[in-house]
Amino acid sequence: MIDRRTSRFFVTGIILVLSVSLGWWWGMSSKPATAVSRADERAKVVERKSSIPSRDNSSVANSGSGFDADARERGAREGQRTLRFSSAAELEAFLARAGDRVTVMSRLDALHALRIRFGKEEDLLSLLDGSEEMGFIYPVVAPDPRGGAVQEDAMALGNQLLRWLGLEKLDPKLGVGVKIAILDTGVVPHPAYGDVKNVFLVPASADFSQWNGHGTAVASLILGNSTTVPGAAPGAELTSWRIADDQGISDSWLMAQAIVQAAESGHQIISISMGSYGDSAVLRDAVTLAQSRGSVIIASSGNDGMSRAAYPAAYPQVVASVAVDAQNSHLLFSNQAPTSALATPGWGVSAAYPGDQVTMFSGTSASAPILAGSIAAVMSSKNLTASQALGQLYRYANEAGSVGPDAFTGAGAVNVGRVLRSDVPNIVDAAVASMVITPPRSGKSAQVQVNVQNQGTAAVGNLPLEVRTPGGTSSLMVPLMAPGEVKSFTIGLPNAAFANGASVQVQGSIASEDAYFWNNQRASSLRAGER
Length: 531
Fold this sequence. Notes:
By secondary structure, the protein is α/β, with parallel strands linked by helices.
């Protein structure tokens, strides 16, 4: 289906205006070299995505096309490899015979893995006996905090995270007793939250003003304890693994190393707002190990508007976060992801920034910590494990986009309040959950799909639904719905309404005397030529 959630033309001028009006600072004007280097690295990763194999299985180095052509073609670190062994004994045997012919940069004993640097490919090849598995190390990039291009009617969230999550007020007890790890650029002290421990896999300046603010913004969406910067789980215990430098650059080995350390130190939730389009074997192993330790890993799907998620979000053991706006509409920059993904806000979200500042944070980087904090909030409130809390968020997710799970909004939009109120009887809450406009295409007429969901705990029905379109007003009746049930209505639109670049607008409203009136109506639009 081609609808308002799929790719559209980039609205460059609007994005620039929004950038200024929302105060997206992020130190770019004072550090032009930093901004350029990060953008260049990101561009290289995306450009090379089509040539990256789906699996990282490097058996030999290509010595016929210049030094380390294999790594260069994949966009991987040149002159470096990972080696994985089936046992500690085999790892030690390799080190014994290697001597000084390779340099061991790092080791991950939990995975029987080494990170090595080599100078001559023939030296490396001569050391291999076939018992090891060799792989590549891929660059990992912290996404641009401005997110990317979005549809014209995208609505920024601002400081309304609690309301979006279905929570009535800031509760400092949410997340108490839950240990969350974030893997990012490090977290500086800020009045928006309490103490955060930093673990440094990448060194940092003693001057906090030099730090990349990405990790600080991420942390605040979990721990924020003010109305200006509210977080999803302000009572959680947060540890930050600094795996990226001040240009926001890291790699798959550092990410794997941090995942292993976080899981082995008892962190129930691991939140990652970075990614790569290279499939690292060691990273895969780290994810598997963390899952075996009971950790739930959340990772951002990526901000490149692609039909695939970045790694590690693309792994089936990881819960991908996709970005929606304040109305739960899929944002154009948000990569598609497995249908097991969950949607959280990623456009103009109020977040902390170094220097005791507040900024508007956008991208799937914002979505991941909101999802991680939501899991922690449910864990502490319901006395559940991380996987059990995640299951509750799936069960009580709000419909978003087309009916049912899809690659754009996953299994739906997170609603912590619905989970916490699930055992409160007789809550009446009918919602116009989503609308999907489809333009005329391939001889098919234009239409809009309007989805109404019962988001309460009491059965509701016989509710008047009014839908206003360029073709007129349709008066419909919503039949009886059990709690959580969705009813879908499809209404034809005049094809002529899309002519000459017109913006087609649709409004839907439901008449229901219920507990949460703000979700009783919805407006949506689609401009001709946009998809």
